[in-house]
Amino acid sequence: MTVRLKIILAGLAVAVLLAGAAGFVLGRYYSDNKKPNFTGKYVLYVRPDMNAAEVMDSLQTGAGTLRPKSLERAFAKMEVAQKMKPGRYVVEPSSTSIYVARMLVFGWQTPQNMTLSGTLRKKDRIAQRISSQMMVDSASVADALNDEVFLAGYGFTPENVFAMILPDTYEMYWTATVEEIFDRLKKEYDAFWTEERLAKAKAQGLSQMEVSIMASIVSGETLKSFEYPVIAGVYLNRYKKGMKLQADPTIAFCYDYTLDRILKKHLTVDSPYNTYQHVGLPPAPINVPPKGCLEAVLNPDKHGYIYFCASPAFDGTHKFAVTYTEHLKNARAFQRELTARRKAKAAAK
């Protein structure tokens, strides 16, 4: 073999090696930067105490990482272990390794829906409802709901803070602080109280807070939203006549919602919230009323009803009456049906 041929072969060998190396590098680049690396959509929650290895394990389990080594290289390149931020991140099947690494480092979160709905009448339950959907812990939310100084910044107190909370779905970042959550609640509260609604409240002779208080009583009376305007009308009729509201939900509140049934002996409880003992509205809302109840107080049905009781149909609806005589007739019909059902139940045992 001539010297010239050896040089040519050596050159070719080097060229092959360089091409192979270049191909290897380009292959890795393509794998890490251009090629999707996950089999399914996955919502990744990164808590402050998580490390990079735990995040990769979570991605492997939830998103189905196709090439773990590619993800490891991307994490190392972006220094994810040192720089990743807590948050709620959505990983798509089309996501590349480097995109996910950058997403974690730069905090490219996808907002979370925080929904407040259903029966909200105790602060600890509200705190739990929020913490179950957000990064904040329930103790921090509960503390805020009872913090006079903190709530004063929003114009509320621990006693009337229920009025500030409007049941709804709020789009927020999962990492929102307690302050940011309350800022958002107050923003929605202010947005709800338009000039038109303020005028309607004034027309009823009520302040914003009094509307919330009345609405909380309506909310406590029925789960049937179509009855809200009728029941609101009943309580407004009583209120404007100077009658005691005699609202059972206020008695339930006085006993911290621990009663299975409200009996006559419970009606004498010593509390400013006892509307059987005191004329007018209680000092603050007794629950977080749905928007439908607020609207019902602002737009009540116009009628002469003063009384109502549970329907003997036992379907959750009520019978309404203008006179006490008519009310007694309705109440006796309900009691007869209740007695009959109890007897039938006892006989079936």
Give a description of the structure.
The protein has helices at residues 3-33, 52-62, 68-78, 80-83, 97-106, 123-131, 138-145, 148-152, 178-192, 195-203, 208-221, 228-241, 248-254, 291-298, 324-348; strands spanning 42-46, 87-91, 112-116, 168-172, 307-310, 318-321. Helix 3 runs parallel beside helix 5 (97-106) and helix 11 crosses helix 12 (228-241). The relative contact order is 0.08. It is elongated, with a radius of gyration of 32 Å. With 349 residues, it is mostly helical. The protein is built from 15 helices and six strands. Residues 18-32 have low confidence and may be disordered. The strands form three sheets. A two-stranded antiparallel sheet has the order 1-2. The protein folds into three domains: 35-110, Dna Ligase, domain 1, CATH 3.30.1490; 112-191, no CATH class; 195-305, no CATH class. The N and C termini lie far apart (108 Å).
